[in-house]
């Protein structure tokens, strides 16, 4: 059964490779993106008030 060790190693490698993207993609970035968009909007408004033009 020499092929058995290779198949177990391959399965572990695939499991490890899929673990990080699965955990990353299940995280909800909606709040983070909303906060960044809000901060950028405020920064653009402040910049345009101070310098009289938008970027």
Structural class: mainly alpha
The total of beta strands comes to 0
For the record, the count of structural domains works out to 1
The biggest sheet, with number of strands, parallel, antiparallel or mixed sense and barrel status, is:
none
Series of H and E elements: HH
Shape: rod-shaped
Rg value: 24 Å
Instruction: Please report which band the strand proportion falls in: under 5%, 5-15%, 15-25%, 25-35%, 35-45% or over 45%.
Output: under 5%
Q: Mean pLDDT score, rounded? A: 75
Q: What is the overall number of helices?
A: 2
Helix fraction, binned, reads over 70%
Low-pLDDT residue spans: none
Topology record:
Layout: H1 2-25, H2 30-51
General description of the model:
By secondary structure, the protein is mainly alpha-helical. The chain has one domain. It is about 85% helix and about 0% strand. It has 2 helices and no strands. It has helices at about 1-25, 30-50. The longest helix has 24 residues, at about 1-25. It is rod-shaped, with a radius of gyration of 24 Å. The model has no long low-confidence stretch (mean pLDDT about 75). Keywords: Membrane, Transmembrane, Transmembrane helix. This is Transmembrane protein.
